[in-house]
Amino acid sequence: MVDRDDASTQGGGGLRRERHGTIDVWTIDRPTAANTLDRRVLTDLASAMAAVAADPAVRAVVLTGAGDRAFCGGMDLKAFERGELDGFDFADLFRFFRGGLAIPVVAAVNGAAVGGGFELVLGCDLVVASDNARFGLPEVTHGLVGASGAVELPTRIPLAIALELGLTGAFIDASRALALGLVNRVVPAGAALAAALDLAGTIVANAPDAVAATKHLMRAAFGDGVLSARVEADEVGARAH
């Protein structure tokens, strides 16, 4: 169980960071805009990734959204249309979409995870969802392509279901996501963050090097193929003996 009395707050604005012991909690803090991704949120996300990568005291991250209406509504299309994202380097966002942090990341999904918000969920290693959560990739309904979602979603759920979501833009609810194995736990509305902190607390109680190696190898089995992951696993095993 995470001791919330140890929480300390850093920064503010687009992405709010709080420390709960060895767990960093990142909250997308734009509830009146469905926690959509504008330049400030994206910049803060890149900074947070760099900060935890350089801080060995951080053993896990919990990612959530402010309020109970939306985890993240995806890209801020109004900001995009105004040109506020022109020239922005999306490399860190794409790295997050692909599980690029070495430490475990747990999503606490409160409300809708749409488009890029769903892709953020797919970049997390474990997912705790409120029973009012919804997941969808509606890009095709706007003539767009959710490229990261199209790549990552079939690694998390059956291909036919991933294709259905990607090609129709349809949504699924938390119970269907649980049945498909997309989320680890479904909890009552308002309880996702606490449950995610508990799950992260269980993880960080284990040896950090073992946790990091296990995450890397399991991710590699999808990203680089099972054969290369097995070769790397053999190499890790040899170094341990």
Written account of the structure:
The structure is a single chain. The chain is α/β, with parallel strands linked by helices and 241 residues long. Helices cover 41% and strands 19% of the residues. The chain is built from ten helices and eleven strands. The chain has a seven-stranded mixed β-sheet, with helices on both faces. Strand 1 and strand 2 form a beta hairpin.
Summed up, the helix count is 10
What is the SS-derived class?
alpha/beta
Low-confidence stretches: 1-12
- The number of E-state strands comes to 11
| Percent of sequence in beta strands | 15-25%
What oligomeric state do the depicted chains represent? single chain
How far do the termini sit from each other? 33 Å
Sheet of most strands? 7 strands, mixed
- CA radius of gyration is 17 Å
Order of helices and strands: EEEHEEHHEEHEEHHEHEHHH
Helix content, binned percent:
40-55%
Overall pLDDT metric: 88
User: What is the overall silhouette?
Assistant: globular
Main features:
about 40% helix, four-stranded mixed β-sheet, seven-stranded mixed β-sheet, 10 helices, disordered N terminus, about 240 residues, alpha/beta
Map the helices and strands.
Elements: E1 8-10, E2 15-20, E3 23-28, H1 39-53, E4 60-65, E5 70-72, H2 77-81, H3 91-97, E6 105-109, E7 112-114, H4 116-123, E8 126-130, E9 134-136, H5 147-152, H6 159-168, E10 171-173, H7 174-179, E11 185-187, H8 192-204, H9 208-223, H10 226-239
Parallel strand pairs: 3-4, 4-6, 5-7, 6-8, 7-9, 8-11
Antiparallel strand pairs: 1-2, 2-3, 9-10
